[in-house]
Structures
1.
Amino acid sequence: MTDTTGTPLIELEKISRRFEHRGQELAVLRDLNFRIFAGDQVAIMGPSGAGKSTLLQLLGTLDAPTDGTMRFDGEDIFARSSSGLARFRNDQVGFVFQFHHLLPEFTALENVMMPGLIGRMRKSVAEERAMELLEKVGLKERVHHQPGELSGGEQQRVAIARALFKKPRLLLADEPTGNLDLKTGAGIHAVLRELNQSTGVTVVVVTHDPNLAETMPIRVLVDQGQLIPQIPGDARLEGRLPEELLHREPRDPRQMAVAAEEA
Ligand code: ADP
Ligand code: MG
């Protein structure tokens, strides 16, 4: 169980992100208030174009909000200089995307311990760590395979191991199962949950698949620029949302998926 009494790992306060598009203003996220605690497993759901990726980019400071404050461990993170933000991302955040971006001519092991990641670490130590991570994601027998010799699900597991190489506190995954069938995708979600349990890394995963979202204990829906909790009375949003939203019965995610397809 996550401790929700202390300082949140991440706190969004009135976060908005607007884009200028052909002279028109597009308010993608509006006044979001949300807290994520260390050790949480969060699924961000919502139809295509809802703003899920935009939200994840903000959480990883790859993009900055137009308004509002984001605190990481109590620190106003966007008050940092760009080099300070780069250091933050490098030290604290691991990213996994829909496309794994593995280097095709490198083995799984080499992809996890890329030169840019190992820095001044001794090679033997880096290799030990990479092996340990590959074992954790279930690829002990595949460490010397190249990406082309691995299945889609296995490739994504390598990408997850790589994202964790620097022991980030936050792992952000943007539709990591977007190219996978449901069963393989469920395996990826299981790996994310196991890593959360064994390493304590806070996991935030975007998915538009309600069946996969259901495997995560905390679920929020991005809907018309707002965050709607899918668990009534969730302490992460308590006192921070209009009452009617906080206590609104969560919609059945399966119906949401149908509505999104019909829209
Ligand atoms: P999702 O990940 O939920 O599918 P996104 O966060 O990628 O949605 O995008 C949400 C909306 O924001 C979309 O309408 C998209 O066109 C718009 N958007 C995203 N990035 C930009 C940008 N850099 N400039 C203009 N509009 C953008
Ligand atoms: Mg997206």
2.
Amino acid sequence: ASDSVSVSQFPTLTRYVMAKTHDNELAILLMALQLACKATSRACNKAGIAMLFGLAGEVNSTGDDQKKLDVLSNEIFIDALTNCGACSILVSEENEEPIFVPQDKAGRFVVAFDPLDGSSNIDCNVSTGTIFAVYEKTSDKYGAATELVITFKGHGVHRFTLDPSLGEFVHIQAHIKMPEGGGKKIYSCNEGNSRNWDAAIKSIVAKWKDSDKPYAARYVGSMVSDVHRTILYGGIYLYPADAKSAQGKLRVLYEGFPMAFIMEQAGGSASCGLFKGKLQRLLDIVPTSIHEKCPVVIGCNRDVEAVLNEYKALG
Ligand code: AHG
Ligand code: MN
Ligand code: MN
Ligand code: MN
């Protein structure tokens, strides 16, 4: 009670959103997303005592075993977003079909989300995350992602952290940029898949390991954590296509696009490598179904360029 620090100037996410937009509907949507993130964080934090570890018993539309927390966090997001009045369509990793918000509650936005990324890490307390992308609906008919527009473009990458004692996301870093020159030499991929990789990926990873100052390998297995580290420390994250999965594993709408957008905004690069016969920027992909996958090669320009040059040399 004797604490005299003024909270009226705290750089919270709520205050940031209010300052950045005069669009009330967008602000309401971001408040709903913020609330869903807090509720998901609370559910993950008490997973042990609430018996929320383990499998839910179902398989989702892209073939993953659903964990109880995948299901619970998905329900939290659907509840928050369908009732906020700002969304008309939701696309979730955990739902085969898009969810159409009833007319009386529908708004202007479409949200694609991965409610819990890295769910294979839950039971051993390794970090997980949530990924979402907000698109403005430009047509009353549901179509492919080309008809959707990303909001907040050009405002850079901002870092907020949840202060549990305050229950607010506090702005801790503005306009985050990847480290100069590419930062630490780190490569991040599931090397257990390497026998199925194409020649270029095999070769560049071998080069990184064989150089005078070899790259360090770091792989959490939660894309959110691996990309977060890549932005803050440097290096590269890859989930390439391979002989078993021609499109890779990660899903375009709620894993590839949002992470690529953040990476480019932070001054890095986001590519699919050689995909469907050509080198492609990830954000140029035009998905034709909601759970479509694409190869992901994202990180500092130094390392992404090295991958692209390897493709140019080896095909
Ligand atoms: P999710 O838990 O949302 O299904 O995503 C899993 C993704 C991503 O988080 C991670 O980088 C990757 O799958 C890990 O895959 P592997 O276990 O094949 O390495
Ligand atoms: Mn999953
Ligand atoms: Mn995921
Ligand atoms: Mn997920």
